[in-house]
Write a structure and sequence with these properties.
Blueprint (H helix, E strand, L loop, with lengths): L20 H13 L23 H22 L6 H15 L16 H14 L10 H11 L12 H14 L6 H12 L2 E3 L2 E2 L10 H6 L1 H11 L7 H18 L24 H8 L7 H16 L48 H4 L6 H4 L2 E5 L4 E6 L4 E6 L25 E3 L8 H6 L5 E4 L12 E5 L3 E10 L2 E13 L2 E8 L6 E5 L3 E3 L4 E5 L4 E6 L2 E9 L3 E11 L2 E12 L5 E10 L13 E5 L2 E5 L5 E5 L8
Antiparallel strand pairs: 1-2, 3-4, 4-5, 5-6, 7-12, 8-9, 9-10, 10-11, 11-19, 12-18, 13-18, 14-15, 15-16, 16-19, 17-18, 20-21, 21-22
Length: about 650
């Protein structure tokens, strides 16, 4: 059993987190040392316990090696190899054993669309960053074996998303060492991501509306790492592309700084959340590429807050292992491609170790984040989000009117269900969607749905955008009840402080129930729940976190839905919701949705708030005197 021992806090250098470079190095060393018992005899695999991925245990073992090798490389390079002799020997040995076709531990060959392509990219990045201490010290024969294995990328095919960048970095490393590669494939991969750039620093991860953590820890990370490799390749042209990447990363970080609370809790949205600390990667890359609007002290403050947030909640576990989950093991938050080694993409969050100890990001004092000074509202038109955060409780809420991870092609007939990590109306940094089997059928949390007499619930699949304003956003989606439909549900969100005023125009069959859910709160014990009428309202509380919904127009009842084993934030969860019986004609509904750490009197939201509904128009006069006019029905005229 391995226990993480960190240095004492440095409150002079790091007023908020107490973390310095020494803390990051200690955490990296702990993660790497804790893997030693799981190395295969020849060192080519890290065979961790846990549910295997769909790719099988051999690929999973390669994954454990490759992803931890990237962490080792950052650790080695950051201190010029000093004190890292054991790491250098361990990964050099495994590298040679895995790349050797005749070895008992030979890695799977690189074939089109296969998982080892991902791990090859990790190895290529690690080899480049640790070049002086590992690659350069290999014999010519061993270098040829490694290049031969990586060379399986040449002429191969990847998935058409961030995987294109795996080919780019792998072949660029081959180019940098004079091994066979395809310059055309490198250029094609870099050209392809141009098709996915949507402005304001944002990419989509492939075609469609694929916005999540991959934008930071893949779409911005790998182009920067590629440029570092290209700089080491004789005759490579990279300056023009690098300048574009730097400009885009700077823009992206202006938004991304709002996606994490000052307590380090990232927004819980999107796939591969088990990568955890990888959320810090784009902020470090901004410093590494001199492409950030954040000061060095702010950058370290933000990244250290993320790492400390997980460490304080039991990550890694008592064995020193990163498990499949969020704070602890929780398989529903993972995907079928996730194996026991997958969480070690957390290595990306340690890329800041490449910055030398004397870099300002390590030597300057921590500085404030925007949320330290005031509540925040950030409009992000590119992904279709409004992010609003409150300073006093460190809650960051994401209102989603644009990210769905749905197939690009419009489906014929019934749309497939959405992914709960993308299809909800809202997400936060201290709650997660309910993910049990029944929860994915019920779809209560942060969903506005139709429910028929048989209990069938409509879902939000493809999101059709309408608009994103300074503090409002709107979209619509098709609603199906089994094979019946589609009906249309249009939703508009208006932000006031920690509240979302949720306006909706809902089409549906007469007699169906319209249900609008709030945030799901979860904890180790059963959440408390209260409901009331006039207006209809419901609230749930767990661990000091309150979720409340209040009917402001059209709703006539409220309740709380409970679940067990459905949340990454605790075994017991609860979600408040509002209901009304559908009249058979499109109906306008207005509610208030709140997530906070204070008890709230439901009637307080109506204090100073005036709502006038005329036809499909909702006129909101907010307590600060601002007037928002929501024109519903725009989605009803769309194709």
């Amino acid at each position: 059993m391995s226990r993480l021992i960190l240095p004492g806090p440095d409150r002079v250098l790091s007023t908020w987190t107490g973390w310095s470079r020494a803390h990051w190095e200690a955490l990296a060393d702990h993660l790497l040392d804790s893997l030693i018992p799981y190395f295969s005899p020849g060192g080519a695999r890290v065979d961790l316990p846990g549910r295997p991925s769909r790719s099988g245990v051999v690929s999973d073992g390669l994954e454990g090696f490759a992803r931890s090798f990237m962490l080792a490389a950052f650790r080695i390079a950051g201190v010029g190899g000093v004190g890292c002799e054991d790491l250098i020997e361990r990964y050099s040995r495994g590298l040679v054993a895995g790349a050797d076709r005749d070895s008992d531990e030979a890695w799977p060959r690189l074939t089109p669309l296969a998982q080892p392509l991902v791990e090859a990219a990790a190895i290529a990045v690690a080899l480049h960053e640790s070049r002086e201490w590992i690659w350069n010290r290999l014999s010519t024969t061993d270098q040829e074996k490694v290049a031969d294995w990586l060379g399986g990328f040449v002429g191969s095919r990847t998935h058409d998303n961030n995987w294109r960048l795996f080919q780019v970095v792998s072949e660029q490393f081959l180019a940098s060492v004079g091994a066979p590669h395809s310059q055309q494939e490198i250029e094609a991969g870099l050209d392809r991501i141009e098709d996915w750039y949507v402005g304001n620093g944002w990419y989509s991860d492939g075609s469609g509306q694929n916005f999540d953590n991959y934008i930071g820890w893949a779409m911005h990370l790998y182009p920067g790492l590629w440029a570092r490799m290209a700089a080491a390749t004789p005759g490579a042209a990279y300056d023009d592309r690098l300048q574009v990447y730097r400009d885009r990363l700077r823009l992206f970080l202006e938004d991304a700084v709002h996606l994490v609370g000052s307590d380090g809790a990232p927004i819980h949205q999107g796939r591969s959340l088990t990568y955890r600390m990888a959320a810090a990667a784009p902020y470090w890359m901004g410093a590494l590429l001199d492409a950030t609007p954040l000061s060095p002290g702010t950058t370290r403050r933000l990244c250290s807050s993320i790492a400390r947030h997980f460490v304080e909640r039991g990550v890694p576990d008592e064995r020193g292992v990163l498990t499949l989950g969020w704070y602890d093991t929780f398989l529903p938050t993972t995907q079928s491609y996730s194996g026991p080694g997958s969480p070690y993409w957390a290595s990306k969050g340690f890329v800041g170790l490449l910055l030398p100890p004397e870099h300002p990001v390590w030597t300057e004092r921590e500085e404030v984040l925007p949320l330290d000074e005031a509540d925040q509202v950030r409009s992000m038109p590119a992904p279709g989000w409004i992010v609003h955060a409150t300073r006093h409780d460190q809650l960051v809420r994401l209102l989603n009117h644009g990210a769905d991870h749905a197939p690009v092609a419009e489906p014929e007939g019934v749309e497939p269900p959405g992914d709960p990590h993308y299809d909800r109306l809202a997400y936060s940094n201290h709650t997660g969607p309910e993910l049990s089997g029944q929860a994915q059928l019920d779809r209560v949390d942060n969903n506005l749905a139709l429910v028929d007499g048989a209990g069938r619930t409509s879902y939000r699949g493809r999101i059709r955008r309408i608009a994103v304003g300074e503090r409002s956003a709107s979209s619509w989606h098709k609603a199906w009840l089994g094979s019946e439909g589609p009906w249309r549900i249009e939703t508009a969100s208006v932000v006031y402080g920690g509240w979302e005023i949720r306006c909706a125009l809902v089409d549906g069959p007469a007699g169906a129930t319209v249900r609008s859910g709030g945030y799901p709160v979860a904890g180790q014990s059963l959440p408390t729940a209260t409901t009331g009428k006039s207006p209809a309202w419901a609230s749930a509380e767990a661990g000091g976190l309150y979720s409340t919904v209040v009917g402001l127009h059209g709703y006539d009842d409220a309740a709380v839905h409970r679940d067990l084993g459905a949340s990454a934030f605790g075994p017991h969860s609860a979600t408040p919701y509002l209901t009304v019986t559908h009249p058979g004609e499109p109906v306008v509904l207005v509610s208030a949705v709140l997530l906070n750490r204070d008890t709230v009197k439901p009637e307080s939201i109506s204090t100073g708030l005036t709502i006038v509904v005329e036809g499909n128009q909702v006129r909101l006069t907010l307590p600060d005197g601002a007037v928002e006019i929501v024109e519903l029905g725009q989605g009803f005229g769309a194709a």
